[in-house]
Amino acid sequence: MRIALLQADPTVGDLAGNAARLLALVHQAAEAGASVAVSTELGITGYPPRDLLMSPEFVRAAFEKARSFDPAIPTLIGTPVPGQDDDIAPANGVLGVGEGLRGKVVALKQLLPTYDVFDEARYFRPGSRPGLVRGAGGLDLGITVCEDAWQAAGLTPMDYGVDPVAQLATFVRQDATLSATVNLSASPFHQSKVHDRVTVARTAAERLGMPFLLANQVGGNDDLVFDGSSVAAWPDGTVVLAPAWSEGVLTVDLNDPAACVWTPSAAADALHLGLNEVRMLGPGESPRSQNGAEDLADAVVTGLADYCRKSGLQRIVLGLSGGIDSAVAACVAAEALGPSAVHGLALPSRHSSQHSRDDARWTATSLGMR
Questions:
Q1: Which of 57, 64, 104, 109 is catalytic?
Q2: Which domains are delineated in the chain?
Q3: What is the pTM of this model?
Q4: 234, 202 Cβ separation under 8 angstroms
């Protein structure tokens, strides 16, 4: 029994492009032997769509694009779900498409964060219970969306008064046997975030008594950067982590964590940074990321690379003073777009030392800039 987590790098608002990106990843998932695929939160719109959600036309277009999805295997897609009329806010939902799922809404996000970079209560109406889908590629799955899983681990600053993981656990104890629970997520990066996500996944897996799988967005969208690092956790505390800073598919074998496979995206413009390999953690083992400085560097490069790609910018022009600040900026730009796409300008004045001028030239030459 295999579930594919689609660690995608969407562009906010590009419905056709995001759908094509997801379809390509689903095809790779099918080739890897997955029975069902799971996108990230709002995978069809990209996260965060912000005030695009104030347009009923955009919400309907996104929902219809998701519903028209024709995947190779059954797929759960994150999408805004329109209200019954334009005066009712949309929900942050999950649509089941493909064989046996018939384009039905199978989950609505319950917990809407309004702290830090999040303002979801401005845009969405909340769901009332966790999602459930039966017969998805032969699997019965519980479904949560991002924040829904964080309350159980005590890692959210808001007290919502409801815990979707506890609700699902009660349901399972009463009359349900599920193969796993999945979580569609768009969880932005900070340096301890992988540790937090692993805690969330382990807590949910233990309380539910089943594997818990979290598909997380990767890439940069404006001022937010997402590291990916999708997670699969088992009740005994075993964890499998997808790579950070890379677009692709984590195919999770529910019966054998050691058999989980990472397939990098084959898209020509796919993001591939960091350590491009699956990591497995034993029970109680802490998730050590790569060197902290490398992680920060990958985050900055990802943010700039995706900002330029998604905005249609092909070249960068920057000033070179010979100082450390412009040298670091030049290194990031060269890594993000390639050195041939970075143009350095030195504008010395009578106050500039020859040493500064030489350093500026050395920086450009060493990086292969124009």
A1: 109
A2: 2-290 (3.60.110.10), 314-367 (no CATH)
A3: 0.95
A4: no
